[in-house]
Design goal:
- It contains 17 helices and 13 strands.
- The chain is an alpha/beta fold.
- It has 4 domains: 56 residues, Alpha-Beta Plaits; 180 residues, Rossmann fold (3-Layer(aba) Sandwich); 75 residues, no CATH class; 63 residues, no CATH class.
- The strands form 5 sheets. It has a 4-stranded parallel beta sheet, with helices on both faces.
- Strand 2 and strand 3 form a beta hairpin.
- The protein is globular.
- 40% of the residues are buried.
- Bound molecules: iron/sulfur cluster (3 copies).
- One iron/sulfur cluster binds next to helix 1.
Length: 413
């Protein structure tokens, strides 16, 4: 089943989703919108933009409800942004609900982030060919693999914290346990489908719904256990898995370290690397402002407060902890986890019309002269020529062009 689907009969044909899609992975034909999996990088921009709620996420909610009822050992892994999403609830209250829902255990991703951050550090140290592109964002790496395949070899070959943590959980709790990952990231849903570490991925919205349903289905004490517990102090990572020492070693002005956020900046970066114009050694890329601003964060509080809430919770957790432990102290007691991952180019073939075919398609939309090309963007494409190319590729038609349709209408009445 596709991760993003469009509900039949719900689409208002506003084309906002096409407008924001960075890779034009949305087909419009005969009044129906369709997400094209082979083109999609799962950035979630269309999902966030569709104010009609026509685009839905293929959810694992029923699957997890079934898992919890079946008695199979289920472990929840929470992406680090969970407290920003659950605000104003605190860690103890969230953990109470998770236990009440029937999860056998619950983990955060700090150990996974520490493992991948240390892998990055070692990889950076041994790398002579630069730039190295680093990303724990599956949407960003998928974009490079599909649309800039020549740069796939520049991606640091490291798994995401989700995968590292899930592998650790399977080793600690047993291979037969079910891993349920709660996240604000839509691309994580796709990533989970590519491996066998994660059994189900729930957006925070679905995860909260699950906790509500299970709270009503089950009975038990209403006592929240807030006793101090051991906590892991980050040594190698910041949330998201970026290596903390790399940040400490480079000032904001150091050209060796480059941070690129957002889809258009990644496109500009990729083009600049291909032209040999980038001097940075390490480049960190994300398609959004980080998971704290992920498409399925599900909170009304703004991004600045979210960051404060998440950071404060981490620091308060350390202060309250019965004991603070680092990854280095724990590692001798932990199973060995593979954190290597290879990236390969998966070029998406996009046929382009020659001049004659382009002129013919433009003429069908009554764009005979340059002045006929209004480039108004109403169809979801920036220019009439982009719309014509999309028509050539079979993912658009002239019914999407409002000025053209208006002309036709005015002739009829
Ligand atoms: S954003 Fe896309 S799916 Fe949503 S109503 Fe507009 S055209 Fe339809
Ligand atoms: S998830 Fe992103 S890439 Fe996929 S269709 Fe939506 S906007 Fe386009
Ligand atoms: S004139 Fe039509 S085809 Fe051109 S950008 Fe506007 S809506 Fe799209």
């Amino acid at each position: 089943m596709s991760i993003l689907t469009v509900k039949d009969g719900h689409c208002a044909e506003c084309y906002s989703c096409i407008r924001v899609c960075p890779v034009k992975a949305i087909k419009m034909a005969a009044g129906r919108i369709e997400i094209l999996d082979e083109r999609c990088v799962y950035c979630g921009r269309c999902f966030v933009t569709c104010t009609k709620g026509s685009i839905s996420l293929g959810g694992d909610l029923d699957k997890v409800l079934g898992l919890l009822s079946s008695g199979r050992k289920a472990i929840a892994i929470l992406a680090p942004e969970y407290l920003a999403s659950f605000y104003p609830m605190n860690t103890a209250q969230v953990l109470f609900l998770i236990e009440r829902a029937g999860f056998y255990g619950c983990e955060d991703t700090i150990l996974g982030e520490e493992m991948v951050a240390r892998h990055y550090l070692r990889y950076f140290a041994g790398q002579t060919e630069t730039p190295v592109i680093r990303s724990t964002c599956p949407a960003a790496t998928s974009w490079i693999e599909k649309y800039y395949p020549a740069l796939a070899g520049k991606l640091a070959p490291v798994v995401t914290p989700m995968v590292a943590q899930a592998r650790l959980v399977k080793k600690l709790y047993g291979d037969d346990c079910a891993v349920v990952y709660a996240t604000p990231c839509i691309a994580a849903k796709h990533e989970a489908k590519l491996g066998d570490e994660v059994d189900a991925v729930l957006t925070f919205d679905d995860f909260k719904q699950l906790l509500r349903i299970r709270f009503l289905q089950t009975q038990g004490d209403l006592v929240v256990n807030d006793d101090p517990k051991p906590a892991v102090r980050r040594r190698y990572s910041v949330p998201g898995g970026f290596p903390r020492p790399t940040i400490a070693q480079h000032s904001m002005l150091d050209p060796a370290l480059m941070v690129v956020r957002g889809v258009s900046d990644i496109e500009a970066l990729a083009a600049a690397i291909e032209r040999g114009e980038v001097g940075a050694k390490f480049i960190d890329i994300l398609t959004c402002n980080g998971c704290i601003d992920g498409p399925a964060i599900d909170t009304d509080i703004g991004i600045h407060l979210r960051k404060q809430v998440a950071e404060r919770a981490y620091r308060e957790g350390l202060v309250k902890a019965s004991r603070q432990l680092t990854f280095d102290q724990l590692e001798p007691y932990l199973p060995k986890i593979e954190t290597y991952k290879s990236f390969t180019g998966k070029q998406v073939e996009l046929p382009l019309p020659d001049d004659k075919a382009l002129a013919r398609i433009l003429a069908e939309g009554e764009k005979h002269m340059p002045n006929d090309e209004l480039d108004c963007g109403a169809c979801g494409y920036n220019t009439c020529r982009e719309e014509a190319v999309a028509i050539y590729q079979g993912i658009a038609d002239w019914s999407m062009c409002f000025p053209f349709q208006r002309k036709v209408y005015m002739r009829i009445i």
